[in-house]
Amino acid sequence: MQAKGSRGAPSLGALPFLFIVAVLLGLLPCLQPNPMLVSEAPHYPAVISGSEAGDVTAAPLDVSQAIRPLTNHTSPGHAKSRKAFPVLGIDYTHVRIPFEISLWILLACLMKLGFHVIPSVSNIVPESCLLIVVGLLVGGLIKGVGESPPILKSDIFFLFLLPPIILDAGYFLPLRQFTENLGTILIFAVVGTLWNAFFLGGLMYAVCQISGTGLDHIGLLANLLFGSIISAVDPVAVLAVFEEIHINELLHILVFGESLLNDAVTVVLYHLFEEFANFEQVTVTDIILGFLSFFVVSLGGVFVGVIYGVIAAFTSRFTSHIRVIEPLFVFLYSYMAYLSAELFHLSGIMALIASGVVMRPYVEANISHKSHTTIKYFLKMWSSVSETLIFIFLGVSTVAGRHYWNWTFIISTLIFCLIARVLGVLGLTWFINRFRIVKLTPKDQFIIAYGGLRGAIAFSLGYLLDYEHFGMRDMFLTAIITVIFFTVFVQGMTIRPLVDLLAVKKKQETKRSINEEIHTQFLDHLLTGIEDICGHYGHHHWKDKLNRFNKKYVKKCLIAGERSKEPQLIAFYHKMEMKQAIELVESGGLGKIPSAISTVSMQCVHLAVSQLPPLSSLSKDKEEEIRKILRNNLQKTRQRLRSYNRHTLVADPYEEAWNQMLLRRQKALQLEHKMNNYLTVPAHKLDSPTMSRARIGSDPQAYEPKSDSGNLPIITIDPASPQTPESVEDLKGMSRLPPSPEEDEEGLVMRVKESSSPGTDDVFTPGAGDSPSNQRMMRCLSDPGPQPEPEEGEPFIPKGQ
Hints:
By secondary structure, this protein is an all-alpha fold. Helix content is 62%, strand content 0%. The protein has 29 helices and no strands. The protein has helices at residues 2-13, 15-31, 63-66, 92-117, 119-122, 127-144, 154-171, 175-180, 182-208, 220-230, 235-245, 249-276, 284-315, 326-343, 348-366, 369-400, 407-432, 442-450, 456-463, 473-502, 514-534, 539-558, 568-586, 599-611, 620-635, 655-677, 689-698, 741-746, 772-781. The longest helix is centred in the middle third of the chain and has 32 residues, at 284-315. The chain starts with a helix and ends in a 20-residue tail after the last helix. This is Sodium/hydrogen exchanger. It catalyses: Li(+)(in) + Na(+)(out) = Li(+)(out) + Na(+)(in); Li(+)(out) + H(+)(in) = Li(+)(in) + H(+)(out); Na(+)(in) + H(+)(out) = Na(+)(out) + H(+)(in).
């Protein structure tokens, strides 16, 4: 049985290729125009008359020619053959364009199907490489039958194939990771692209000046224009490769964000150098205006996208009664944003990203779940088909286009592209890591540099060059195609084993939970509060400002119903609940749920509920008061207070006094604790006479006799006397008696002086002995130092000395 299964597997694996061969054979008759099927349209002559050159009028037809009776007779010269079936016929010219488009899309879908059916191929070769190979084969087949293969025109690429891919990426953009790394992405996209363009253009100009290369006629502006075309990272190629290797979110958003945002730099540099090529002399004013045009193109594209995104969100507010057209508004407004930006030579990619990011939270709050599912899967399908067609037509256009091969120019372009990318990433990462909390490791830098793929955008921009001003257009296109093939085939095929070899962290497919969302919001509010306390207006501060403005004004205008007042956490809970319910239905988990309760049992339940005493209903005022309390105490995590700044604080006059009071109380407690321990535990080493006088002189009244032992002597010590503490006198005039056993056990009793009244404190009523020197002495004496623990049973001051 196993042998039979092993023999039958290749036949099933070869099934998609049989469909591909059938489609290719079906393309052959479409490529050979049949002269018998081409019919000429009737020609009606027009008579141009009028006294002025602008007057164009058509001569009136003769009545005898215009009105002809329908007869069955035909003239001998215009005899028409009779058909066997008058209705049936072949008219390929009528359906040629949609029929060929459908065949190309069918070929793309069959190739994707065959790619995923055979896992051994998909694990080695990226999908983009296989599609380019298919395009090369199809182009060679078309050229082999004597026809000219179709070329990927720039208008078709920029107006029809690129927008679905960018809209899918912008609408489902991971906004949190994108905003947290926006500074790094902008540095790579703007500074990195400028570095690559000017570095590559300058070096290529130096190569062209070498004698013997045959490139002397290529000037500086042409090389800079070529550098601006080839320096931009392509989002289509990055998406195709990085989604297959499942790289971690940080590296993916850095490389993909760079490929999205460098469109503005590429558009500005391309049009700028193209215009400068027509000037006889470039002035400083032209350079300054060109630099300012970058901000106009980028910010203008973002502004157009934001406007269309707000309009789309506002329109979706009124679609509750007609849910069918909800997805259509998302597609139309996004596409209108792209076309409006391209109308004024602004960045269409920036407009699409901005419109998708702005409209998504409000549109998803207004539309139904079915509309959301339609938008999601239609965008994924549309972008996947467009991506497949782009790579196939890259291969076809390579066979169909005209090429001019110059070894020096092409090899130098390839080497300088790699050098510029590596140096740019290393230099910018060294600068970025000085400000980042999460540093970019050398492994991350290698993946960022190695993932700078080029694609169809560079090819389309090169195809737009005019032969009149750029006679080297064919050589530029050949170099661009070489760089594209090298980055897609070599770097795209080797990046997966390199990621595994370097043990780069990959993306972890985890589902978001309520616990994670609660902790994320908690950390956001905590970091915002820390920034407010420090007086620093950072990323979290402005994010909190934007969220408050959005909740207070924007949501009320763009979201219909009570959803506009719903907290973010509750909205996320509803979303997760709906998602889990759909997954439960799709997985067949409803079979495990107990069956419905019978009608009799339900009647019993209703009867029992009806017998319960009715609950007292709350009044409107009471309900509104409860809601206000909940809003003030539960939803608001903090109140907006004056920002803390340690440089502008006003000193509190009572703060120093309170601190002194707390310190004195703490020291008094510590001293009392130590003195109580010393009642029966003496120190091993006696103090010197001078230290003893200082200790007792600091507070003479602290040494008092026990109140319950009248037989203990009262000792007085004069601090100013040179005598030592060993010479003591009995105040009662009693002669010195031998120590009794009780005295030997108990020794002397030392007590801390108590305050005069419980309500007073010595901080505000300083005594006579509260001089600074006495306070320092008390602090010194409160710490006995690193002495060994005394043994129990020994008095503090032995009486026999």
